[in-house]
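Troubleshooting entry. Yesterday's outputs looked truncated, so today I'm pasting the complete records for two proteins to confirm everything comes through intact. If either block looks cut off, that's the bug. Protein one:
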Amino acid sequence: MKTLDQITAGLQGYDPQAMSADDVQAFLSRLVTPVRDVLELPLFEALGRVLADDVISPFDVPPHDNSAMDGYAFDGKQLRTDSTIELQVVGTALAGKAWQGSDGPVKTGQCVKIMTGAVMPQGLDTVVPQESVTLNQVDEASHITLPPGLLRAGDNRRLRGEDLMQGKAALKKGEILTPARLGLAASLGLDTLKTWRPLRVAYFSTGDEILSLGEAPREGAVYDSNRYTLFGLLSRLGCQVIDMGVVRDDPALLEAAFTRAAAQADAIITSGGVSVGEADFTKAMMKKLGDVAFWRIAMRPGRPMAVGRILSTKSATIPIYTGTRSYTNNSNPDGAILFGLPGNPVAVMVTFLAFVRPALLQMMGANAAPAPLLKARSSEAIRKKPGRTEYQRGWVSSAPDGSLQVKSTGSQGSGVLRSMAEANGLMVLHHTQGNVAVGDEVDVMMFDGVI
């Protein structure tokens, strides 16, 4: 385990009071380490989990040459480029069983009607779609006529093992199990998969001005929204969440909350309490409980952030449940990773998407690359000073020419939740970027499947 000082020693030009977005991402990638506990889960419980081992194909997929469509199978050597060919239909090959002709193998001048997925009869390598031939009845026998130049030998045939070869990796360690990957595992006859256990993430909001739902309104207080957005973001990521509610600005209460969270979680996320001007006892208490750095990030929204580790003082084991399976989580001797986020609701979501989510994916053992930023043309002029990264809420749509366009969803204040709820992505205006004119391309981080 590296200390924060050891991590910062390897970062050129590290300045906690002037962190760029790239600096933050580089720091966090060195801070976090993946979990190492393995669960073997039924497929119905494995969605969203991360594979802990390669999945090796136990057989060829497909296991035999088969037809890619409904049509007629024949020996492609009979094809002509300058004249039609006529073939007698001598039977039908259905999916799910091998075709066996009563008169032995299919001969020259013959073909077999075949269904999609049916095993290719011996000696046949080409399938013509049924809609591309003329079917005739001659002396109680069916014949098809193929026009010249329609096909090449081998067309419309799926080869044995062309999808997966026996003994090769069908899925890789570190891949997130999506619906398609679950289907692939099922197609191999597998009913369980080895996955890394889900992360346990504790989160709470801080501040005397924060109301929990159900409390009566009072002057100067606001209802807590951050816990609900964090619950959604973490749940969609596949984490097991520990909601610790709202913690008042009281040193004893805060210390107890951090200590309890570190004893049962891999990561702790707080909102509020890390800005300039916040109570000094909060920062002092965090440093007392672990190894914590306080940053000012060159970004908007979301400038303040605290990062580090909160050490666990308890050695008790914690029973953890996922679906129908359970395991025991021994307290992490390295402590829980702390992500202390700003208090403003939009700043919480932006810092989570930009920094916390990639770090948690790394902790989950996922090797998923960041989602690519899309290019869209701005529908409006945007004022932007170089020297900080800005994440502006926007709505991406298709322009009349088919390209992507993006426009702001309104006020960009860090407390304005409505414009975040109406957005489908963030315009990412990079550190060195200046003003944006109408029609200029900007990068966009899409929300689909995340927020």
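Protein two, checking that the full record survives here as well:
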Amino acid sequence: MTLFKNKYRVESTRLQGYDYTQPGAYFITIVTYNRACLFGKIINGEMILNEYGEIVKNEWEKTGIIRPNIIIDKYIIMPNHLHGILIINDNICRDTLQRVSTIEKFGKPTKNSIPTIVRSFKSTTTKQINIIRKSPNTLLWQKNYYEHIIRDTDDLSRIRKYIKENPSNWQNDEKMM
């Protein structure tokens, strides 16, 4: 933790200076605020989404529709978090003639970067769910998120397996929370 404007702030897990718009696969985990179980239940090792979970699912899948260079790979919505793999297929959205910086900077979103995609996803799901809950300005997600740059096919296979098996491991996770 570092001190920023007289407040403690958790350091980002993102690599300093890394271009999060470049082609590759990224494992993302986004957790609800206070780990509240809001998106459904695990029944017999299977995740059953509720109305809020369906919103999260629809918006996650929409990410790949509204951004033609993003592929939504394996993902799972759990009662209090989402694990997903986002693949940036190529940089068709980056115009090399513009010479726009692709390095994310605080307060300056970068089009089609992983941080901007996650920020937009969290914002739209929060707005939609808060309308249903009739609770404007209520936090839905924790401030940050976990990301891992997937380095090779073995890493990708291991993470896909982890995502697939996540519901069957819920009882172990639940005790940790």
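Both blocks look complete. Sanity check on protein two: The chain has one domain: 18-176.
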